[in-house]
């Protein structure tokens, strides 16, 4: 015997969330790019080691936009596409796909930023790291060794790839938290 709940709600396997996740992942990525450009234009770039308290503002805004984007996709998918029901696994999928899209956009922007918009960014980062290490009392040999190890992480390709990986991981985490709060399982009685 089938319940009316089951007959009114579509099977999640037949309903795609791909377009929603791509759309909101692109919004998330776009806001991140605008935030980075604002930081560059106002000389408050949050990725530099000496960003100070401004870094927290950018971080909070970034996490807020990411959380909003993923929660919105989950809510729309649950309420408008799935008849009010959604499982945790689907929330994780939505979060990771939105994070992937955002990460790809940010990775492309990072490569363009470091090679076209601000080609001296890597050197600027290295200079600030050296200044911090000197303040911490590191010797020249230690600074040279630390610079050689960190130079791989100031490469545009490595930073772009880390943007993609970071986007997926952040999307998974936010998707998990939002999914735990927003999930509604069907009852098949």
In short:
By secondary structure, the chain is mainly alpha-helical. The protein has one domain. The protein is built from seven helices and no strands.
Characteristics:
0% strand; mainly alpha; 189 residues; elongated
The number of helical elements comes to 7
- Structural class computed from helices and strand pairing: mainly alpha
Mean pLDDT: 85
Low-confidence stretches: 1-6
What's the structural domain tally?
1
Question: What layout of secondary structure does this protein have?
Answer:
Blueprint: H1 4-8, H2 18-41, H3 54-81, H4 88-117, H5 121-135, H6 140-150, H7 156-182
Helix pairs in contact: 2-3, 2-4, 3-4, 3-7, 4-7, 5-6
Structure overview:
It contains 7 helices and no strands. Mean pLDDT is 85; it is low at 1-6. The longest helix is centred in the middle third of the chain and has 30 residues, at 88-117. The protein has one domain (4-182). It is mainly alpha-helical and 189 residues long. It has helices at 4-8, 18-41, 54-81, 88-117, 121-135, 140-150, 156-182. 28% of the residues are buried. It is elongated and about 70 Å long.
